[in-house]
Design goal:
This protein has helices spanning 2-18, 27-60, 63-77, 79-136. With 141 residues, the protein is mostly helical. The N and C termini lie far apart (44 Å).
Length: 141
């Protein structure tokens, strides 16, 4: 109960900070951010799938892999884990509008205050690191 109260209080304070007017981000900046975020998430999912596919054959016949699978199944069936997952899912759903508003405020602040000074350098850095990421963490399967 104390943790829930502290979380609500912290959210209330953070909402007050974001209540002030922030510059609106350019549509081009929001689209660019959204595209980069989607590609990054695809890279993470692809890396996770490859790691899982590589580890699964190693763990299938081993006693450690069987024991890990048993523990995982026990954890999945636990009522505490189920209720925790439901609570976290509910909180994530409730916080999504706040997170989106904060994200847009930060993009607006970046676009207004920082982009004129570091935007070109950041864009160059992102463009230069893309080939390395395409090699190490490709975004397509």
């Amino acid at each position: 109960m104390k943790l829930t109260f502290a979380l609500i209080l912290a959210l209330q304070v953070s909402v007050c900070v974001w209540a002030q007017d922030w510059p609106e981000p350019d549509k081009e900046l929001v689209d660019k951010y959204t595209g980069l975020k989607e590609v990054f998430l695809k890279r993470l999912v692809n890396a996770w799938e490859k790691a899982k596919d590589a580890a699964q054959p190693l763990l299938e016949g081993s006693p450690t892999g069987d024991r890990a699978k048993e523990i995982f199944e026990e954890i999945k069936k636990s009522p505490r884990v189920e209720s925790t997952v439901k609570i976290i899912s509910g909180l994530a759903g409730e916080l999504e509008p706040v997170v989106d508003k904060a994200r847009l405020a930060l993009l607006g602040a970046y676009g207004y205050y920082l982009r004129p000074y570091i935007g070109e350098h950041l864009d160059t850095a992102i463009t230069n690191i893309k080939p390395v990421l395409d090699t190490v963490l490709p975004s397509d399967g």
